[in-house]
Amino acid sequence: MESTSQVDNDDKKSMAPPPLAMADDAFPTPADLARATATHRQGAFVIASRKLPISRAGPIARLEASLGIPVPEMIFGDNAVRVTHEPTGWAVEFNARDALDAVDKTGANMLQVAHARSWTASRENGDAVGAAGGRFEVVRPFDWSYSTTYRGTVADGEGRKEFAYSEEATRPIPLDLLRRRDPILFFDEVVLYESELDDNGVSALSVKVRVHERRMLLLARLFMRLDGVLVRVRDTRVYVDFEAEEVTREYTAREGGFEDTKRALLMTGLRPDEITVALRDANRLSELLPIVEQTLESVSLKS
User: Fold this and answer.
1) Which residues, in sequence order, are CB contacts of 178 under 8 Å at separation 6+?
2) What's one GO BP annotation on this UniProt entry (predicted)?
3) Could you give the angle at the alpha carbon of 265 between the alpha carbons of 263 and 269, nearest 5°?
4) What pLDDT is attached to residue 13?
5) What is the residue range of 184's domain?
6) How many CB atoms within 10 Å of residue 180?
7) Running DSSP on this structure, what letter comes out for residue 190?
8) The pLDDT of residue 54
């Protein structure tokens, strides 16, 4: 039940620097990564989170080259949240690089608004200015709303344990237990990326984690609002039962038309000026948007 802002050698291995980091980068150094990482041990699990400033030009350029698309204006490429089962080495991690790699790169799911057509075309023609500030050649269209389908990066560890659905073993996340006012032993919120969609709205991916004595919940949320077009909230919840050593992952995708969402807010009794504020509140919008996809799966790690 120990919490610390400094990781030990084992934890450094589990929250290793991103694969794109190079030795000639002045920042972040291994010491910077260690200082930015907070860890908490609970039962057989280690929960680690790392927060650093927006990535610099060099790492951004390499990230864009690796992904094949420009990255959002605000990219926190060194940030991550990881939950590790120490006995087996099984882990699930959330990081910006893998999240952006799950963005559609075919153009099949590309949203269009009047202003976006010329903006997207310029990016496709090689005139894109990436987050690093330089020109970036894009060889194919991509989902410029950054609506990732990312549900975490899983390391299956010993025994190759994987998430799966089972009628006998997979149980819904016990929201009633999570609503109890049990002491919070560890909490953090980590932003992975954010874009203003060239002043057409917002797209942001963040991760919250809170740990109690017997259980923990991680919420990775993609909030995308394309003004005049669409609103999306995609939630990945990871629930851990420390005593049973079981991990449940629930993915819920919600979305609705922009005008439909405004009308739904109006029906709640909000004034027009209050609706403008509410359209920035993912928590409020998630209660109104219809579910378009939902999955539930689990993994048992107890030997």
Assistant:
1) 215, 217, 239
2) TOR signaling
3) 105
4) 42
5) 3-300
6) 9
7) E
8) 96
The values of phi and psi at residue 274, to 5°, are: -75, -30
pTM for the model: 0.84
Tell the burial category of 140 from Cβ atoms under 10 Å away from its Cβ (0-12, 13-18, 19+): exposed
Q: Are 302 and 270 in contact (CB under 8 A)?
A: no
Task: List the one residue out of 61, 59, 53, 55 whose CA is nearest residue 25.
Answer: 59
Helix (H, G, I), strand (E, B) or coil at 172: coil
C-alpha distance from residue 194 to each of 6, 58, 155, 175, 276 (Å): 27, 19, 26, 28, 19
Strands 80-85 and 45-50: antiparallel
Total domain count, the chain: 1
In what helix (H) or strand (E) does residue 272 lie, and over which residues does it extend?
helix 272-278
> pLDDT by residue (tens digit) across 117-149?
444 555 555 444 445 444 334 344 789 999 999
Residues 265 and 127: their CA atoms lie apart, in Å, by: 39
Read off the amino acid at residue 67.
L
Tell me phi and psi for residue 288, to 5 degrees. Answer: -105, -25
Structure tokens at 251: 């993915």
Q: What is the mean pLDDT of residues 46-58?
A: 96
Q: Could you give the CA distance from residue 188 to residue 298 in angstroms, rounded to a whole number? A: 23
Q: Under a CB-based contact definition with an 8 Å cutoff, are residues 252 and 241 in contact?
A: no
Angle value at C-alpha 9, between 190 and 159, nearest 5 degrees: 80
- Section 299-303 average pLDDT: 91
Whether residue 113 is predicted with pLDDT greater than 80 in this model: the reply is no
What DSSP letter does each residue of 80-109 carry, written as one string? Answer: EEEEEETTTTEEEEEEHHHHHHTS--SSTT
Torsion of CA 109, 114, 116, 121, to 10 degrees: 90
Q: What is the mean pLDDT of residues 225-230?
A: 94
